[in-house]
């Protein structure tokens, strides 16, 4: 959050540009100022793709891949999380590597990690992403970027058979229905 005082036109221009850095397919994270942590590992970039095509737009039912580049300055035991937020910044998911039974080994230098979120079942809209790396024992922040990028779920899925009323939900389900 930042505060700006000035002419109305300049204030509106700054507001409209405030989200430009995160609404990209390939986001450079190396110079982000609002990060927290001890710096033993740093996020350098994140790149989105769907079906091996560089994009941050996905339809319901598709997979979206995040290619995350990390740089390790000191070999430490760590774990990683991805935070998903609605556009109003209400957190809707905390996804950790341990959820997939992935053990992350200490490293120095650069490491690239592909994380594929399977079969997205979110209503159409913009979703923000935060990244966190923490100490595996103490959970102290090593690098924490509360919100650093975003993706959009767009209409047009071939598994959806209706229109979505605006603000009518977050998650899309297709349960089995039985009538007796």
SSE topology:
Layout: H1 8-17, E1 26-28, E2 41-50, E3 53-54, E4 57-59, E5 64-72, E6 78-86, E7 91-96, E8 109-117, E9 125-135, E10 141-154
Parallel strand pairs: 4-10
Antiparallel strand pairs: 1-2, 2-3, 2-5, 5-8, 6-7, 6-9, 9-10
Count, helices: 1
Helix-and-strand structural type: mainly beta
For the report, how would you describe the main beta sheet? 5 strands, antiparallel
What is the molecular shape? globular
Rounded radius of gyration (Å): 18 Å
Terminal residue distance: 54 Å
The ordered H/E elements are HEEEEEEEEEE
Q: What's the number of extended β-strand segments? A: 10
Instruction: Please indicate the percent range of residues in DSSP E strands (runs of 2 or more).
Output: 35-45%
Average of per-residue pLDDT values: 88
Helix content: under 10%
List the uncertain runs.
13-20
What does this structure look like?
By secondary structure, the protein is mainly β. Helix content is 6%, strand content 42%. The chain has one helix spanning 8-17; strands spanning 26-28, 41-50, 53-54, 57-59, 64-72, 78-86, 91-96, 109-117, 125-135, 141-154. The chain starts with 7 loop residues before the first helix and ends in a 26-residue tail after the last strand. Mean pLDDT is 88; it is low at 13-20.
């Amino acid at each position: 959050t930042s505060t700006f005082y000035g002419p109305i036109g300049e204030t509106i221009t700054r507001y409209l540009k405030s989200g430009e850095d995160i609404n990209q397919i390939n986001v450079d994270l190396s110079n982000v100022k609002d990060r927290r942590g001890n710096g033993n590992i740093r996020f350098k970039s994140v790149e989105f793709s769907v079906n091996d095509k560089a994009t941050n737009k996905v339809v319901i039912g598709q997979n979206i891949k995040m290619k995350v580049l990390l740089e390790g300055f000191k070999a430490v035991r760590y774990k990683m999380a991805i935070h998903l937020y609605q556009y109003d910044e209400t957190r809707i998911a905390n996804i950790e590597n341990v959820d997939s039974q992935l053990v992350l080994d200490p490293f120095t230098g650069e490491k690239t990690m592909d994380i594929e979120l399977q079969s997205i079942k979110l209503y159409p809209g913009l979703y923000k992403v935060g990244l966190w790396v923490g100490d595996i024992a103490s959970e102290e922040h090593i690098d924490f970027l509360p919100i650093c990028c975003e993706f959009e779920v767009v209409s047009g899925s071939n598994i959806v058979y209706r229109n979505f009323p605006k603000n009518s939900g977050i998650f899309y389900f297709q349960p089995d229905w039985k009538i007796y």
